[in-house]
Automatic annotation (TrEMBL):
<keyword id="KW-0804">Transcription</keyword>
<keyword id="KW-0238">DNA-binding</keyword>
<dbReference type="InterPro" id="IPR037923">
    <property type="entry name" value="HTH-like"/>
</dbReference>
<dbReference type="GO" id="GO:0043565">
    <property type="term" value="F:sequence-specific DNA binding"/>
</dbReference>
<dbReference type="InterPro" id="IPR020449">
    <property type="entry name" value="Tscrpt_reg_AraC-type_HTH"/>
</dbReference>
<dbReference type="InterPro" id="IPR003313">
    <property type="entry name" value="AraC-bd"/>
</dbReference>
<keyword id="KW-0805">Transcription regulation</keyword>
<dbReference type="GO" id="GO:0003700">
    <property type="term" value="F:DNA-binding transcription factor activity"/>
</dbReference>
<protein>
    <submittedName>
        <fullName>Helix-turn-helix domain-containing protein</fullName>
    </submittedName>
</protein>
<dbReference type="Pfam" id="PF12833">
    <property type="entry name" value="HTH_18"/>
</dbReference>
<dbReference type="InterPro" id="IPR009057">
    <property type="entry name" value="Homeodomain-like_sf"/>
</dbReference>
<dbReference type="InterPro" id="IPR018060">
    <property type="entry name" value="HTH_AraC"/>
</dbReference>
<dbReference type="Pfam" id="PF02311">
    <property type="entry name" value="AraC_binding"/>
</dbReference>
<feature type="domain" description="HTH araC/xylS-type">
    <location>
        <begin position="196"/>
        <end position="294"/>
    </location>
</feature>
Length: 306
């Protein structure tokens, strides 16, 4: 099995849009991808993070990619997406064609529309990365993205404003698709904002804050109210959301790097490495060292199929 070099192992490589884009676009890019002719940058075949939002509407071909230890087989007609800072890995399999869209937080900030950041497709509260589209939804998104592509290729006046408007429509539309199958979430729409704010805070503070009461204080609500809201909306407790985020990051660091377990414990805010071991085992059924060994077994994860 292929792993990162000793130099790369200390940290998971992190790529900006300008580094990933063949044309060097820094804030926004949309393009048609022909999997038979497109040249892929080498970093897509090793575990890496992106600092931008990524959408891919598949037109043809099947492929497999991984996001935080979950594999997705791309299928024609579906939409695949990720948010910044997740760990990605693409397998070397069959070519895929479709429409590629990427944009950064900075591009969103140009609009000064804070409500966009509360859209489900950007916050991704269910941690999903695939949307199965109906035929009508696929046609709508394909037409919209083609309009975006045509505008992107022009040098017309107010080009940026036009692209921002198209992107707003896309994000709202895809958010509707995202939530349509979640009847429980739809019936508790009033709780969505608190849940989204909670998840945002957890992503920002999980290295330091491990208690639900800490987040309740930041949200200016009681711990009981926060827990009841989270549980009603997601079916999980506030504490479980924090613990799941810690476990995901621990697995990333164990699998993709060579930090010692005690170093990972300290990096995640655990002062006692022994407690971190017990915490990890309680939630996963195995110790951090055991997970690192088993997760690197080629037969189990089959990450580098040629």
């Amino acid at each position: 099995m292929q792993f990162l070099s000793d130099k790369e192992k200390r940290a998971i490589p992190h790529f900006s849009l300008s580094e990933s884009s063949e044309a060097g676009h820094a804030l926004f890019e949309i393009k048609e991808v022909d999997g038979h002719t497109a040249k892929k940058k080498p970093h897509v075949f090793i575990p890496h993070r992106k600092d931008y939002y990524f959408f891919f509407l598949v037109k043809d071909g099947y492929n497999r990619h991984w996001v935080d230890f979950v594999s997705y087989e791309t299928k024609p007609g579906n939409l695949y997406f990720t948010v910044p800072h997740q760990v990605h890995l693409k397998e070397k399999t069959t070519p895929v064609s479709g429409l590629f869209l990427a944009f950064t937080e900075e591009f969103l900030a140009l609009q000064d529309r804070h409500e966009l950041r509360d859209l489900p497709i950007l916050l991704n509260p269910d941690n999903r990365h695939e949307l199965v589209l109906s035929e009508l939804e696929n046609v709508f998104l394909n037409d919209l993205m083609m309009h975006m592509l045509c505008e992107f290729k022009t040098n017309h006046d107010w080009k940026s404003s036009m692209l921002q408007s198209y992107l707003n429509i896309l994000l709202v539309y895809v958010s509707r698709v995202y939530t349509r199958s979640n009847s429980a979430a739809n019936s508790l729409a009033g709780s969505r904002q608190m849940v989204n704010r909670m998840k945002t805070l957890v992503n920002e503070q999980f290295h330091e804050l491990h208690q639900a009461s800490d987040y309740a204080q930041l949200l200016h609500v009681s711990p009981g109210h926060l827990n009841d809201t989270i549980k009603a909306y997601t079916g999980r407790t506030a504490t479980s959301l924090i613990q799941e985020r810690l476990i995901v990051e621990a697995k990333r660091l164990l699998f993709h790097g060579d930090l010692q377990v005690k170093e990972i414990a300290y990096q995640l805010g655990f002062e006692d490495a022994a407690y971190f071991n017990r915490f990890f085992k309680k939630l996963t059924g195995e110790t951090p060292a055991s997970f690192r060994l088993h997760s690197r077994d080629r037969e189990k994860y089959n990450l580098y199929r040629s």
